[in-house]
Inverse folding.
């Protein structure tokens, strides 16, 4: 039943995975039936215990078998195999629910409809990194040396040019390349925060950032997000009361509400930052998806007390871990030292690819294509979700996020759990809020809002509650 | 004099860089002469201030001009242009001398002879990542999704297989992929250390690790490194006195002494780890360069209290930031959460390339070629350095490092500064030691030991001191 071909070029573990998959899929090993123990099977087939362990691990990952502690391996229920998530659970799940959710959004391919994800669908990104660029890497010799710690100078020059085009005067020497925006936030926190420093954050806002700041023992103060940007009265009271070290905010296409701060609001933030002497970290990860010119804190402040954090993972795909910090010059050496302490240096491969994409204009063209696609998708999704019964306000007009209110009577917790069981990942509003503000909201990715599985599910739940 | 061609396809900044370089190299702009100010030049040539700033920045990076605070830009002395390091100094230098040195070893291409570097020369690595593998990336679709946070399952399976071949029983689910070994140490410190925890370290040992642990507010206790591995008496006294949380050690091809711990020594370390209940972090970054099978703590302990840290940057080149932690299963979820907090996720590109290299056997073949080249290079370097007057003990037989004692009368500080001025990077022994043990030693990379510029310089200094 479990035989393998010893002289085959196919590794024994692969053969075992195939064989067991076949037996399960053909029904010869029915749901719930117990597999031989690792040792028994190794003995019976004549392979090592490690071969069997590795095969079983892969079968578990595929959702075909389940390990039950102390009892062995069993054929998993058939429903787990279809649309169900195949995320590794059990001992490998995250300890923190917020980080566990972050992991699910990163592993969105496990879901039929990852509507709670902050990334665009893979199918939108197929032209993002053309193979012509990758085939240049070997010729370039870029892998023979490390990427300079601060980041490739040619890449930094191109980044500086882009930021200058957005109206922020900056030189390449003020840019530090990072493994994405999260890495940038970590380096900034390492560099600027002492334990128990007060840090102001958007509420609602990006949940992984909240967890990162807490990991640096920061005391988080929520500042309500309103349609125009930051609630300036709340910002001033918090600044007066807590004397914060920094305010981390996303002015453009805010996650999760989708709103962008007005120029007047930006001016108000900077006036308070000066008055109460705090640093502002401006999260620009969605800025390239904005279809029209945007105003930013960095532009008004000219990077005197603002640190500008950018990223390319939203536009090139989450597999490309690359972003940057544009900082006041005096902070750059400290940020570079923090980078050495955290990761030693960056990836020459990813930096080369990004440099080529920017220099060739391919990044710009790809971004234009994404924006052209995102606008109509957003409109279609809004219509579909409203028909399903969700309430979507008008204050946000662009970008990837729809901040949707559920009708009274729909329990968001229950909704998310049930959605997951049918392969839909939803992001519930409370996750984004440290003050409990987002209760009754969902953040829905505009690229998925008109997926029939999603809106039919939402419609049935909204109707049942009505 | 500074004219540019406005309609040329060559960017204006590039034209300016070329033009000024020519003027300097032809002697028309002599050493020490002052350049027009950024504004003047922008006005005169009819380009933006940013174009000139960017051109000047690149000229500074090339060592052709110097910025003097408040006074403007001047043509740099000619000696700076030849073999001299072109590392960005001034405001961008590291604040910490140890990190500054780390940065120099990473930017080794700035030196004619980077003998103090811990990386192999780029010329040894040209076949490390064949273009055939890079051209597969686009087809693979790997960039359309993020790398799973813990690391690509196929890659983890291959890593587990390699570690099992080294005699350590491990499953893929116990591996966390990182951006290299330094990132691994940072994640381990984040996960396991509280401020003021005592941590035992090899003395001498890897200086960046010392700085990383200090950044986590660890109290470092030096444990002398001897020919057989760790000084077990010193380890026991320190363990009794300080009740450490962990011991970080490099059993195989130790940096900087090049020695490997014996099996008996490994057994002794583990016995003390059990008796005094500390975790052992075993740094395996040079293991793949060992020409014969090695014994390791992980192998004896079977990853119960040992964390095994590996890296591919030493063999594939420092531009590939990829490594891993193989950990006791119970620690894996915490390490994964620390990774989310630090960088969110890994690079799908680097992970794909490594997976292909391992799966195709190309990594193994490249490693064999490196070892075949390193053995003879080591012997030649030892002979050359001994002729020059350095004392090299026999206890280390393999790997990249030669731990060389200077004859009495040679001042190591002076030697390193003078070496740098002629394009030689040297690593002085005191940098590796937190107890001051390495005084009078240099760590020399065996790939560079017979470079005539190096040994002639060393010979002249040793003779002068005799």
């Amino acid at each position: 039943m479990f035989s393998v071909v010893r002289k085959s070029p196919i590794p024994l573990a692969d053969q075992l995975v195939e064989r067991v998959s076949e037996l399960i899929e053909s029904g010869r090993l029915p749901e719930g039936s117990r597999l031989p123990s690792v040792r028994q099977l190794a003995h019976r087939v004549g392979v090592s215990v490690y071969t069997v362990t590795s095969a079983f691990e892969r079968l578990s990952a595929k959702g075909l078998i389940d390990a039950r502690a102390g009892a062995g391996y069993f054929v998993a229920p058939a429903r787990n195999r279809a649309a169900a998530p195949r995320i590794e659970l059990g001992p490998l799940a995250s300890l923190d629910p917020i980080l566990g959710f972050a992991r699910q959004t990163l592993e969105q391919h496990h879901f039929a409809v990852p509507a709670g994800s902050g990334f665009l669908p893979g199918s939108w990104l197929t032209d993002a990194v053309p193979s012509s660029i990758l085939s240049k890497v070997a010729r370039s010799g870029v892998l023979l040396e490390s990427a300079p710690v601060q980041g490739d100078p040619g890449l930094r020059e191109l980044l500086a040019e882009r930021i200058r085009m957005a109206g922020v005067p900056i030189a390449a020497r003020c840019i530090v390349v990072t493994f994405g925006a999260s890495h940038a936030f970590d380096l900034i926190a390492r560099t600027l925060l002492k334990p128990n420093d007060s840090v102001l954050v958007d509420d609602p806002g990006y949940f992984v950032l909240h967890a990162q700041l807490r990991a640096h023992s920061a005391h988080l103060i929520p500042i309500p997000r309103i349609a125009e940007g930051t609630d300036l009265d709340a910002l001033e009271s918090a600044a007066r009361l807590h004397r914060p070290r920094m305010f981390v905010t996303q002015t453009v296409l805010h996650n999760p509400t989708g709103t962008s701060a007005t120029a007047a609001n930006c001016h108000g933030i900077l006036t308070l930052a000066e008055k109460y002497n705090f640093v502002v970290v401006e999260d620009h990860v969605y800025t390239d998806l904005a279809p029209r010119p945007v105003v930013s804190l960095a532009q008004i402040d000219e990077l005197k007390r603002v640190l500008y954090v950018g990223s390319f993972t939203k536009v090139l795909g989450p597999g490309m871990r690359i972003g940057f910090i544009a900082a006041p010059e005096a902070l750059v050496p400290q940020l570079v030292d923090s980078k050495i302490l955290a990761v030693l240096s960056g990836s020459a491969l990813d930096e080369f690819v990004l440099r080529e994409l920017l220099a060739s204009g391919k990044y710009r063209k790809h971004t234009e294509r994404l924006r052209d696609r995102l606008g109509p998708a957003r409109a279609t999704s809004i219509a579909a979700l409203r028909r399903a019964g969700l309430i979507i306000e008008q204050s946000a007009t662009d970008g990837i996020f729809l901040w949707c209110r559920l009708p009274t009577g729909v329990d968001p917790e229950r909704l998310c759990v049930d959605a997951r069981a049918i392969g839909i990942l939803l992001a519930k509003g409370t996750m984004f809020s440290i003050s409990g503000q987002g209760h009754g909201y969902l953040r829905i990715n505009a690229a998925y809002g008109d997926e029939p599985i999603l809106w039919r599910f939402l419609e049935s739940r909204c109707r049942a509650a009505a």
Observations:
- Chain B has three domains: 12-80, 91-125+365-465, 131-362.
- Residues 12-80 of chain B form a domain with the Arc Repressor Mutant, subunit A fold (CATH 1.10.10.10).
- The two ends of chain B are 54 Å apart (CA to CA).
- The longest strand of chain B covers residues 219-226.
